[in-house]
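Task: fold both queries, return tokens.
Query 1:
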Amino acid sequence: MPPALKRWLSPHASVLSSPQNAVRPFLDLPLLRNCSLLLSLFIAFSLEPGHSAPADSTSLDEAIHQLAERVAAIPNLRGPLRPQFFQDASFAADTGKDWQDTFRKEIENHHLALTDDPAAPLLRIGLGETPTQLVLSASIRVSDKDEVCFFSLPRSAFRAANLPVAPIRIERQLVYQSPDRILDASTIWDGAEGGMALLDYRNADLSILRLDSSGQIAQVISLTVAGAQPSRDPRGELTVRASDGTVLLPTKGCDFTWVTSADAKCHAAKPAWRAPTVLSPSCNAGGWKLLTGTSDWSTPDVMQVVPDGPRREGSAALLSDFPGPILSINGEQDPASALVVTKNLRTGNYEVYKITLACGN
């Protein structure tokens, strides 16, 4: 097994001892639960040639065949299975969904039925690439155990679109989690103390929480008292500055200040919702756009990081998976970072991650 893969499969994930108010440096390296994280791993760290890739003569169809064999060989795996496919944007124009159809036929040839039934076990299959390899991966949870299969082959075996091979990787940090519903998060930039602000929904009350740099609640400003009534499906966007900020709700805008403990002032408004976040790491000034992978709030989400601009979109993609649906993405004043809010479907907690695009492999 390649050393890069061994390092990622080792149990590095930390446990936060105070889930209610937890803000700590935390590098989230869970066991690879699904194919999208595996794709991210291969894109971030190119595996050593010759250790994981088959012979140069291997075709994409043969790689799909061998991946299906490995999936079928997973102990205690029973059908029918519900397939979910992920694909680097660069492959869409070249392969369409042909490779997905090939995988379906191969897996059914191994006597594993496929279905669209949402109650069936989820089999996630992905196709991605590194600067030197194509990577096929599959993941499924069997008997409370995460099973991951992968197969890689040289890029020379398949001519994809020319990719701008930029030395970019995704760094992800869990910075806060809470059982209360978090609608949005924003970093506070005041030059000294720092911290974070949250748009919090608890017991039918909308509030802005200011957290200090240690994760403790330093201030609470109620929006409900100011006349902001949450909808049945509450959502909102939070923008903060050193001494004040603004909250945009579906029918209202609310202004507040950190200087006093007074409630926010809300007024009728038709807010323009936040455009997709674009990050610009120092080694790639062209910018990378952060997009969510699904609108289904009952399944784990995948964040796609794609080059921004009409000439660059679709030419490459980095993927990062999350333990639940992505509820908001808020770009920070740091041009290379953003805060991502998600709901962990296993624990039920709402979590805030800091996403940073770093330079170098």
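Query 1 returned. Query 2:
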Amino acid sequence: MKVFVIAIVLCLLASSSLQSGSFEKQAMSVVQRMLVSSLDAELPKRPFAAWFNQLIGPEAGVVWQLTECGERIDAPGEAGQDLPACAEANAVLPNGNKVIIAISVGTFKKGLTGEPSFFRAVVERDERLYQVRRLRDLPEMLHAREGLIHDLPDILASLPSVKLSPYLPSLATRLATMPSFLPESVTPPTPSSLQQQPSTPSKPQKVLEGVLRGNAIAKANPVYPASARSMNAFGTVEVQVTISEEGRVIDAKAISGHPALRNAAVEAARKWVFKPTTLNGSPIKVESILSFVFAASSSQ
């Protein structure tokens, strides 16, 4: 009887995996073939994949993947929550610059829904992250030699504020920052004025998981280990992460969850990228928890 039950569970898991794989292939195909002008009317009427490949050049490497993007969605009448899905293109240019483009395609439970839309793009240059507000701005930002952000005030105004945990100092609520460049007419601060500024804490400041997820620029779903599937290992794995001043995960360790699932959750957590958090006007390290749910009915 036990063997029969295990066989049924394995069949359900295989079916779920196949459905997830089918959704991923379908989403990638739709996004790669769609006209880039449908994402931004200022761009040419060319297939998105062809436009992107020409933009980054033949020597750049491109990785396509289906990833979670945005906040979790309550699903009335259904068990649990749904996750918004994005088709994501990651590329590394020969000059070392990196670019990530995320196109919203639907949800993990419902599959493709509506027309794909531009969700977010990020350029990494000289170990700093630059958020792309409009897809039409990507070519200039990707290849510009200096001054990647030309319209800084508008970009800052469009960003949500970063809310730190209540037990932090009263100055803890700050705008998520983007790199900026001083105009020639602005005199840099003198050493004496810098000494008068309050120093930022050396220890990571704790933030709530919901706030951290809301400030994620790039996300990655864990790969379900085959060994864990064979053991019927399910449940939630909590990963404690430390985020650097640049918004990168510099430390990750699982603090709860099934042992067979912990390594997969940690590997996924290390791939996340966040908007930097500032305190007293300076970027700071933060610490929080990322929870990953491994269930028979999901692709995680």
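Both queries returned. Flag for query 2: Confidence is low (pLDDT under 50) at residues 2-20, 146-189.
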